[in-house]
Task: inverse folding
């Protein structure tokens, strides 16, 4: 007579096998992630916490004295007469530059996204050409723009001269009125492609049926954009604003380093450049770290503002 295995014994065996399989898979996953964890710990977490610790230490001639001064560096930055005016001006330049750069990048890249999203002859060539500025290394693009702005053989001066806008070659990057604008223009040129492709990907996810329904309702372009395209594009817009704000507050440093060196005077001495000067020119590492923390907190505040104000769920609740 054939023996029958009880059902509950089979269930117990299957459960035990599944638990063992789960433990083995989990252990394998942790082993695979171990190099990544080590990289983050060594090259990101440790430098981050070490930099924060420097802000609370006293330095003399670039050497830590071992004395903990807590928030004295922060107090000096905001109140000391030899530091505060320069810091406030650099902070103001950074915020103005970031707002102008982010606004320009968003508007131009959104317009380009609408263009490249249309299937027409030569659109693939435009997409490849559009990618080149962003793919170019920061220093290389800064050197190119330095040549363009050159007062003796620069392309921009030659163009303005041919158009009759100037009589003689001018030193654009040595003029306090134009230096920061020159940095802004070069920065926007480099960052527009990144956002344009993000917006293009977002636009491609919007169903054609939505626009067809808008046409049936005789909706004009402005109403269609404000009521259909922009709300459906809001998650991409939110992410782009967050990324571009961080980029605008940090990644213009390479342009300033190559093109103006913070000058003329202090007309392009933004906060990243001031942090660089305090830390590596004057060896005041504690004060430089404190300024870096302040800049990070400002970026976090902007990001929080975007996440709260542009949150689609919050907007739907208000509606």
Result:
């Amino acid at each position: 007579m054939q023996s029958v295995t009880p059902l509950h014994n089979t269930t117990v065996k299957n459960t035990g096998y599944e638990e063992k399989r789960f433990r083995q898979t989990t252990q394998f996953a942790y082993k695979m992630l171990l190099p990544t964890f080590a990289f983050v710990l060594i090259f990101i977490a440790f430098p981050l916490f070490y930099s924060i610790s420097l802000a609370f230490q006293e330095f003399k001639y670039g050497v830590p004295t071992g004395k903990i001064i807590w928030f004295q560096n922060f107090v000096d930055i905001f109140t000391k007469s030899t530091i505060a005016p320069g810091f406030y001006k650099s902070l103001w330049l950074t915020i103005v530059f970031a707002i102008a750069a982010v606004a320009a990048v968003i508007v131009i890249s959104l317009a380009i996204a609408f263009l490249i999203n249309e299937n027409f002859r030569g659109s693939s060539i435009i997409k490849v050409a559009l990618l080149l500025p962003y793919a170019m290394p920061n220093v290389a693009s800064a050197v190119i723009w330095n040549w363009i702005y050159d007062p003796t053989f620069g392309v921009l001066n030659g163009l303005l001269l041919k158009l009759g806008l100037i009589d003689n070659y001018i030193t654009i990057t040595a003029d306090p009125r134009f230096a920061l604008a020159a940095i802004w223009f070069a920065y926007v040129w480099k960052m527009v492609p990144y956002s344009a492709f993000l917006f293009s990907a977002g636009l491609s996810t919007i169903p054609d049926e939505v626009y067809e329904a808008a046409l049936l309702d005789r909706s004009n372009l402005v109403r269609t954009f404000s009521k259909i395209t922009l709300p459906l594009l809001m998650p991409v817009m939110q992410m782009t604003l967050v990324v571009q704000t961080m980029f605008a507050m940090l990644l213009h440093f390479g342009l300033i380093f190559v093109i103006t060196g913070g000058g003329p005077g202090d007309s392009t001495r933004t906060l990243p450049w001031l942090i660089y000067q305090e830390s590596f020119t004057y060896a005041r590492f504690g004060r430089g770290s404190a300024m870096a923390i302040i800049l990070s907190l400002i970026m976090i505040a902007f990001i929080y503002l975007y996440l709260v104000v542009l949150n689609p769920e919050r907007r739907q609740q208000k509606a």
About this structure: The two ends are 73 Å apart (CA to CA). The chain has 14 helices and two strands.
